[in-house]
Amino acid sequence: MDFPKELRYTKDHEWVRLEGDIATIGITEFAQSELGDIVYVEIETAGQHLGAEAVFGTVEAVKTVSDLFLPVTGTITEVNPELNNQPELVNSDPYGEGWMIKVKVDNPADIENLLTSDAYAAQVGS
Amino acid sequence: MKETPFTAKHIAAGAKMAEFAGYNMPISYTGINDEHAAVRNNAGVFDVSHMGEFIFKGENALELIQRVTTNDASKLTAGKIQYSCLTNENGGIVDDLLVYCIEENNLHAGKAGVYMLVVNAANIEKDWDWIEFQNTNGAEMHNISDRTGLLAIQGPNASKILQPLTDMDILNLRYYTFVKGKFAGVDNVIVSATGYTGAGGLEIYFEDKDGNADKIWDAIFKEGTPKGLKLIGLGARDTLRLEMGYCLYGNDIDDFSTPLEAGLGWITKFTKNFTASEYLQKQKAAGPDKKLVGFEMIDRGIPRHDYRIKDAEGNLIGRVTSGTQSPTLGRAIGMGYVSTAFSPIDSEIFIEVRDKLLKAKVSKLPFVQQKQ
């Protein structure tokens, strides 16, 4: 499985790409594969300031529903509008077109607390 | 965990495996939507060897079946199958099952009937104990679950793909009938026009000995693979059955719901006495307080097992028993019990999804038209 080196990861299977103080967030290749066909991504927290590990939305696969956890404290500035009609982008391109939210993070240094690609790969055993 | 004769093949095929009813079973291979579409449009193979099979014989076999099940098995002639329920003393459903008439009961001609009951894997012991407890007239009972393999080959092209593997006419087999004979070089195979998908197709029962499982599996895929036959897991089995409004034991029906509440009045026959038939007859006359209905979401969201169902004022009127995004319709569908007042088609109901009330409407079952 692919866990790009330039991203950081959480134990809950989200990834983070930090550019300046803006973090782009999605779920990992491992997460989408475990969930199976994703049919609905519900994120209604745009504009909200949330703490790390707060639930920012839910992802529904055919058989299951999972909460999405915010990796770092910040304000949600954008939700990927394409997911409304094409939630399957999370399956087909989890690190690209399947991104979920952009967050203006309070403290960019927080990202250092997240897992590296190697540490995350070790956690999921691949 | 128990294994079926095909467990190693599922793992080798890269299936996502999980425990189901004590068995290590394939949940999906290439993805639920993909497998679901393969069955609706062409054909797919499900390993359902975990299901239980009981054989009942002797002059009191039919009498026992009549006493413990809701449907009228005296109507069955050899080669016919019936959908039925086992009930408990309160009228609740112990299990839903199929009754196969292998040899007709004709005591005047000195012939005792032979029947096969096919039960849910999770209920094998419970069903056996409950029937045995009521077997007061000495019908002969055999539990052949552990040595019986079962593959369901479902889809509009399933029968066509399998026909070359047998001399029996399985292409024109009528729904809920079966034939028994040589299939893929294996003797005493039951080929039955039944299934849990509404997509048409067959189910194949065989004795798991002398390499029969491998012979049948290899022959089916040798014939089927060039014709697009796919492996299907339990995930798609669930979405396929839900599109048809078929009940799943443990979700939609259980020991605390009656056949009348579950919409199974059509297999509940008061032409005979059976466990709790008096109580059920009273419930039928009075009308049940709650009914199992199908519904489609109007607001966006996906109903799941155990979500609350409410009315427009927010009063609790029932619970969701099954729900999913329908791969065929691309819309969210579900089933659940509601107070009888809300059971008519088009009734407006609300599903509580993560503290929000989402609008839905009661709809006709099946959600997708049956092909058989």
What does this structure look like?
The complex is a heterodimer of chains A (126) and B (372). With 126 residues, chain A is of the alpha+beta class. Chain A has one domain: Beta Barrel (OB fold (Dihydrolipoamide Acetyltransferase, E2P)), CATH 2.40.50. Chain A is 15% helix and 35% strand. Chain A has three helices and nine strands, in the order βββαβββββαβα. Chain A has a six-stranded antiparallel β-sheet. In chain A, a hairpin with a 3-residue loop joins strand 6 (55-61) and strand 7. The longest helix of chain A is centred in the C-terminal third of the chain and has 8 residues, at 117-124. Chain A is globular, with a radius of gyration of 13 Å. The mean pLDDT of chain A is 96. Chain B is α+β, with helices and mostly antiparallel strands and 372 residues long. Helix content of chain B is 20%, strand content 33%. Chain B has helices at residues 7-12, 32-41, 61-68, 124-134, 158-162, 212-224, 234-243, 277-286; strands at residues 16-20, 23-28, 44-47, 52-57, 81-87, 93-103, 114-119, 140-143, 148-154, 178-183, 186-192, 201-207, 230-231, 290-297, 308-310, 316-325, 332-339, 348-353, 356-363. The two termini of chain B are 35 Å apart. The chains are: A alpha+beta (126), B alpha+beta (372). The A-B interface holds A 36-37, 39-40, 42, 58, 60, 62-63, 65 and B 16, 28, 31-34, 235, 238-239, 300-302, 304, 324-325, 327, 332, 354.
